[in-house]
């Protein structure tokens, strides 16, 4: 077993885990953050997408030991105090980007990462950014619309000085 | 159509906020105190005698709490024909047969224990091809049926036939005849959330099962029977449905893993969770049925259909699921897609040693719409009639009774074609773009729109429980699996009862609290739930207005006093509240009770919550408002041997069309534009509806172009998303024109029809027609992979014999 100090959603936590423990299991297990989903365990579906130092990664392929000292952001970390949803999350609710919801946390994280680096993406940019995230319910149309809506919301919020 | 306040509006889906925040609890996220993890040992042969199972090493592994086999547990028979048992004894019939199972303190120990189980087999002859399985000398997959009677053939004793009119006369009347053999493959439903359950017994022997199911009440019935087999007669099985990570038909049967979890939970006295990995889901969860279809149909010189004959051979695999009732739905397009008078339909379902199959979205309909639509293009070519025009000459219309006896109350098929023709620029493009290797194509569908009766009861109930605060708690026994059922139900309750949607709360599905429902299939969820809700709301309003007759006048009198205290000198308008109450002229809208014709004075209205509390807190006359309504749709259970009966309360129609470009070197199909027009009766929730149509379209594209569970001697060869490709966002980057035709069906809630499945149904033939228009190749066997298209193009360039 090894001891790790992880920074997840801006909070520090110490965990004792197997040396090869997957970030996914550490998040869902000892850290009590089940929002990150396991859809394949093989890096194929993107349901477990989280951000490590701002970059989207599959938590199922990422050893927890590798993220020590790096900022990890999960879908729970986008929710503000009092359950205040982020612009991307609100856009998914408004834009109908949610059906069964199992891929949604991963989709939300991929879109969040995209908008952090490209605040004004084209639909093609969005589709490119979501290529690693599978969805079986929506046909992606309303997910792409939600992502573009999120970009608009964030730009408007920035112009208005609100929380994005 | 009646005016509505909430119906037809994009209210936020009630489940969406939790889902985007990662708060929705799927089976993956659930845990119970003291819970163990179960795992199954699957067969390594498709057909073999089990000589010996050695579980001794698994039993000795620290952390293992139970190891069970068919030899040391009661036999639990399951399946549509009860031909499957939860844990196999002595014999395996498919690669995925459950031989043993373990319960352990964590999933890793359980997986390790499974590896330690040794099984000695004696291989037996097997049959994997459904045609060969029908040979008299083919090995029998089952030599006895569920009652122990010997059987002599691999043919299932499930017969669905239809003969109407005079086939020979129809053949004589045909000027042109098109025929062919077509096939559709095994498809993995590919839910993003894999299968799983938790089974737990209380100390009185009652079971609770958290199940990823679409049929909580039929599952309850199955589980109660299993309890009886375990010696637990008279005990209850309670089924609770967590958030489902997709279903698409996988939840229409109960599964061996659920019974194995029950056995392990009973053996250990502890809750047991089973959760499939992705690889297990691909290899060990039943895929969509594959089918081979032979079709002949003909038309007269004007292109009017004169007859149609369809023979289906369906590969059942080794055991029988509800998917064996696919032919009951195949009858709908076979007899009723376009007007055709003389029809023959016959379906044979055959046991093989392949993985046993189950249902998926469309339920037999796409399997038969595929050959019908493909041969219509052939007829159009022969007759020299534009293929869209030929379809319009045979288009279904309201008022029609089809050969199956389907009563077409409303039908917007013609309008759907008109939309597709315009949006695809059909007149300019069809047959005009061969040089650019571009083409357009369309195909239509008919499906049940008012549920589909394949069980004695096709109904469902809704309970509305109003509380002291004006909240409406809704219990419905069907399942939200992502399609937006709870969104539609919320809008319907708000509309029908007269409250705001924020006050409507749909409870989780639980057999202990919800009224019976046959299950969420046949695109029936919103149709049934909203119809039941309308009826329950009407009962609740009657009770509320009876309360109001007594309580409205005294309550508003108090309002008036308060109003006058705040506004000295206020004189109320001349309106006789008592007389209006006595006449029962109450209205309830947005959670406020008013009197019809009353002046809009602020005191002359009563919040629903106050009326409810006034009704509750009045001593011995105290009363709560809880209303239930069970809705049974006006349809009939068809006689399957005749293939006749009006199985749905109404029918959904639609047309899909595509423009494609085909690379004649690589065979790659690029979709440039899609059109999807549907007769939906009435739009309940535009966003959820678009989501259903676009999601179905995407699944249809995978089905058409590349999805296929590949097997060798029953073993799945592509058990991963790398090897079994489903559509990604990148591939679906083309514009889709979605259009809804509102025909306001009299049976529909607010006029709406069920629309969960149609998006998938006509996609493959529409794409095939566009591909044929682009490069002239015709492919009969789905999926139309690049390899098949390249091969067909080569054959086209170098015809046989040259």
Walk me through this protein's architecture.
Chain A has 164 residues and is α+β, with helices and mostly antiparallel strands. Chain A has 2 domains: 2-77, Beta-grasp domain (Ubiquitin-like (UB roll), Roll); 81-160, [2Fe-2S]-binding domain (DNA polymerase, domain 1, Orthogonal Bundle). Chain A has helices at 23-28, 87-95, 104-117, 123-129, 141-160, and strands spanning 2-8, 11-17, 49-52, 55-58, 71-73. The model of chain A has no long low-confidence stretch (mean pLDDT 96). Chain B has 802 residues and is an alpha+beta fold. Chain B folds into 3 domains: 31-127 and 195-275, Aldehyde Oxidoreductase, domain 3, CATH 3.90.1170.50; 290-454 and 637-797, Aldehyde Oxidoreductase, domain 4, CATH 3.30.365.10; 459-631, Aldehyde oxidase/xanthine dehydrogenase, molybdopterin binding domain (Aldehyde Oxidoreductase, domain 4, 2-Layer Sandwich), CATH 3.30.365. At the A-B interface, helix 2, helix 3, helix 4 and helix 5 of A face helix 1 and helix 18 of B.
């Amino acid at each position: 077993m090894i001891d790790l100090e992880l920074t997840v959603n801006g909070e520090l936590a110490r965990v004792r885990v197997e040396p090869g423990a997957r970030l996914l299991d550490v998040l869902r297990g000892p850290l009590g953050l089940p929002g990150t989903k396991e859809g394949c365990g093989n890096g194929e579906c993107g349901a477990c997408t989280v951000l490590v130092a701002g970059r989207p990664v599959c938590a199922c392929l990422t050893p927890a030991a590798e993220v020590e000292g790096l900022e990890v952001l999960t879908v729970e970390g986008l929710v503000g105090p009092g359950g205040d949803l982020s612009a991307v999350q609100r856009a998914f609710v408004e834009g109908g980007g949610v059906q069964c919801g199992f891929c949604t946390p991963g989709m939300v994280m991929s879109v969040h990462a995209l908008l952090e680096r490209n605040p004004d993406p084209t639909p093609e940019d969005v589709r490119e950014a979501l290529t690693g995230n599978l969805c079986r319910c929506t046909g992606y149309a309303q997910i792409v619309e939600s992502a573009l809506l999120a970009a608009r919301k964030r730009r408007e919020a920035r112009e208005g000085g609100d929380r994005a | 159509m009646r005016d509505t306040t909430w119906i037809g509006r994009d209210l936020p889906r009630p489940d969406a906020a939790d889902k985007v925040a990662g708060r929705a609890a799927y089976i993956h996220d659930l845990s119970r105190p003291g819970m163990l993890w179960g795992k199954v040992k699957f067969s390594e042969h498709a057909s073999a005698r089990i000589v010996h199972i050695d579980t001794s090493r698994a039993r000795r592994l620290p952390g293992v709490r139970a190891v069970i086999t068919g030899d040391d547990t009661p036999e639990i028979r399951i399946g549509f024909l009860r031909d499957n048992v939860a844990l196999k004894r002595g014999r395996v019939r498919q690669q995925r047969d459950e031989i043993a199972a373990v319960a352990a303190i964590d999933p890793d120990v359980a997986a390790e224990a499974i590896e330690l189980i040794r099984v000695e087999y004696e291989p037996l002859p097997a049959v994997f091809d459904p045609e060969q399985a029908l040979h008299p000398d083919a090995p029998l997959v089952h030599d006895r049926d569920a009652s122990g009677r010997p059987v002599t053939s691999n043919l299932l004793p499930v017969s669905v036939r239809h003969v109407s009119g005079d086939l020979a006369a129809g053949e004589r009347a045909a000027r042109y005849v098109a025929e062919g053999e077509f096939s559709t493959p095994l498809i993995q439903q590919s839910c993003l959330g894999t299968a799983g359950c938790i089974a737990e017994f209380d100390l009185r022997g009652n079971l609770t099962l958290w199940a990823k199911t679409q049929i909580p009440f039929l599952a309850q019935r199955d589980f109660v029977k299993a309890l009886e087999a375990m010696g637990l007669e008279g005990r209850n099985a309670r089924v609770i449905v967590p958030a489902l990570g997709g279903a698409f038909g996988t939840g229409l049967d109960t599964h061996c893993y659920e019974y194995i979890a029950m056995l392990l939970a009973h053996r250990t006295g502890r809750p047991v969770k089973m959760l499939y990995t992705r690889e297990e889901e691909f290899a060990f969860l039943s895929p969509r049925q594959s089918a081979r279809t032979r079709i002949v149909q003909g038309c007269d010189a004007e292109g009017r259909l004169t007859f149609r004959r369809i023979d289906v051979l369906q590969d059942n695999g080794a055991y029988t699921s509800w998917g064996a009732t696919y032919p009951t739905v195949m009858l709908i397009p076979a007899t009723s897609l376009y007007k055709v008078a003389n029809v023959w339909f016959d379906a044979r379902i055959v046991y093989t040693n392949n993985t046993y199959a189950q249902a998926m979205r469309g339920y037999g309909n796409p399997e038969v719409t595929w050959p019908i639509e493909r041969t219509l293009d052939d007829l159009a070519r022969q007759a020299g009639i534009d293929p869209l025009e030929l379809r319009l000459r045979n288009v279904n219309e309201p008022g029609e009774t089809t050969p199956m006896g389907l009563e077409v109350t409303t039908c917007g098929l013609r309008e759907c074609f008109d939309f597709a023709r315009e949006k695809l620029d059909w007149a300019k493009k069809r047959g005009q773009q061969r040089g650019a290797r571009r083409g357009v194509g369309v195909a239509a569908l008919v499906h049940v729109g008012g549920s589909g009766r394949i069980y004695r009861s096709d109904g469902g109930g809704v309970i509305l429980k109003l509380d002291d605060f004006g909240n409406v708690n809704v219990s419905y026994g069907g399942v939200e699996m992502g399609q937006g059922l709870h969104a539609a139900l919320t809008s319907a309750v708000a509309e029908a009862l007269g409250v705001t949607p924020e006050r409507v709360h749909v409870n989780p599905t639980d057999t202990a609290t919800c009224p019976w429902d046959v299950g969420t299939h046949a695109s029936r969820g919103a149709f049934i739930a909203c119809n039941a809700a309308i009826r329950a709301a009407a009962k609740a309003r009657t009770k509320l207005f009876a309360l109001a007759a007594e309580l409205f006048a005294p309550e508003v009198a108090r309002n008036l006093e308060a109003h006058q205290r705040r506004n000295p000198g206020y004189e109320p308008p001349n309106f006789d509240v008592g007389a209006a109450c006595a006449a029962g002229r109450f209205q309830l809208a947005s959670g406020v009770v008013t009197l019809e014709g009353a002046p809009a004075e602020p005191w002359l209205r009563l919040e629903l919550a106050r009326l409810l509390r006034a009704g509750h807190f009045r001593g011995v006359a105290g009363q709560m408002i809880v209303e239930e309504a069970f809705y049974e749709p006006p349809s009939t259970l068809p006689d399957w041997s005749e293939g006749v009966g009006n199985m749905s309360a109404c029918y959904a129609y639609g047309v899909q069309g595509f423009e494609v470009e085909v690379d004649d070197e690589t065979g790659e199909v690029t979709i440039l534009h899609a059109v999807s027009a549907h007769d939906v009766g009435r739009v309940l929730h535009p966003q959820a509806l678009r989501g259903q149509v676009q999601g179905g379209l995407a699944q249809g594209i995978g089905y058409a172009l590349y999805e296929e569970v590949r097997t060798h001697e029953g073993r799945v060869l592509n058990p991963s998303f790398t090897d079994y490709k489903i559509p990604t966002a990148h591939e679906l980057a083309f514009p889709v024109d979605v259009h809804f035709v509102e025909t306001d069906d009299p049976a529909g809630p607010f006029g709406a029809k069920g629309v969960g499945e149609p998006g998938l149904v006509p996609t493959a033939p529409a794409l095939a027609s566009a591909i044929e228009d682009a490069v002239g190749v015709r492919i009969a066997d789905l999926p139309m992979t690049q390899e098949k298209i390249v091969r067909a193009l080569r054959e086209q360039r170098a015809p046989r014999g040259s």
